[in-house]
Amino acid sequence: MGERHRERAGMLVTALEEVDPSELREYAEKFADGLIDAICSRGSADIIGEYAMLLPVRVLARLYGFPDEAGPALVTALNDMIDGRERALAGQTHVFTSMTELVAARKKEPAEDVASRMLADPSGFTEEEIVQDLMVMMAAGHQPTADWMGNSLHLMLTDSRFAASLFGGRNSVAEAMNEVLWEDTPTQNVAARWASRDTQLGGRRIRAGDMLLLGLQGANSDPQVRTDGSALTGGNGAHFSFGHGEHRCPFPAQEIAEVIARTGIEVVLDRLPDLDLAVPAASLTRRPSPWLRGLSELPVTFTPTPALGGTLA
Ligand code: HEM
Q1: 23: domain range?
Q2: What is the per-residue pLDDT for 214?
Q3: N or C: more exposed end of the chain, with fewer CB within 10 A?
Q4: Mapping DSSP to helix (H, G, I), strand (E, B) and coil, where does residue 16 land?
Q5: What's the structural domain count of the chain?
Q6: CB 180 within 8 A of CB 257
Q7: What CATH number should be reported for the domain holding residue 277?
Q8: Ligand 1 pocket by C-beta < 6 Å: which residues?
Q9: Ligand 1 atom 10, closest CA
Q10: Which of 22, 43, 2, 14 is nearest to 272 (CA)?
Q11: Tens digit of pLDDT for each residue in 118-166?
């Protein structure tokens, strides 16, 4: 790894690891409750489009330094940008402009947030570089965390091993989330690496300059490792879903993603305890993407309940 990349990784780790865990949990709960308030009296909802795709970006925006008022527009803009269709460019422009304004404001007046900590880092990255990194941290953080939540809720709704947790027990939320990282990971393939020297991998010759795609879901189900083909549950965290080596997902980012996804799932189970699939499981579809694996929709039904109020959506 180049020296500059090492310094950059150090800056990201320091800025993220100083996130206060109880504040993180509080934001995640507050935004999750706000989103449930918007759907709970209806008795039915799409838990992907109306919940999972709206939550991580709100929490991350708050941690990075945005005021809550900026949240809803960032949610729309970031999802438009990721969606890659006609509104993608306008979405990207909004996120970029907002990020540039945030970094300029924190340069003048630092606060207790990720943007300020990145600016204060002694490695002296420019404001432009920090804006680019925050863009990556927003996009790389939001969608996989939303898919982790969605794929875990899908597993819990369709696999009888998790039925008990849907009716009040929470014990297996962590288990479902870990199983998803092995069996149904959001980051199924990652683009791309270029080999820096000739080498051999899995009996294949790789030449310097060859482009490599990282098949993380493939590695997780490698028959040489999973000789009996069984599902890997329990606490085994030796999967590749966060990458591996110097470019892997920074450890504090993994922890933040875990808290957001777990809190998001727990709030759903607390607030909509008799949640059930509204359609046959076989009719559910995945977004068409070779990279990130997530559901297009997860329609559910539940007994309507009144909103809690006093929370932000
Ligand atoms: C709070 C949410 C998250 C943040 C802020 C975040 C941030 C990042 C950043 C900054 C990188 C680039 C590291 C580098 O270039 O050195 C990265 C890479 C990566 N992240 Fe995350 N991430 C988050 C959630 C997730 C989740 C939920 C997953 C998967 C379940 C994931 C999987 C990965 C993978 C596979 C890579 C690429 C590894 C590679 O290129 O080899 N991340 N993440």
Answers
A1: 3-172+248-301
A2: 92
A3: N
A4: helix
A5: 1
A6: no
A7: 1.10.630.10
A8: 9, 12, 136-137, 140-141, 144-145, 148, 185-187, 190, 214, 216, 241-243, 247-250, 253, 256-257
A9: 137
A10: 43
A11: 999 999 899 999 999 999 999 999 999 999 999 999 999 998 888 766 7
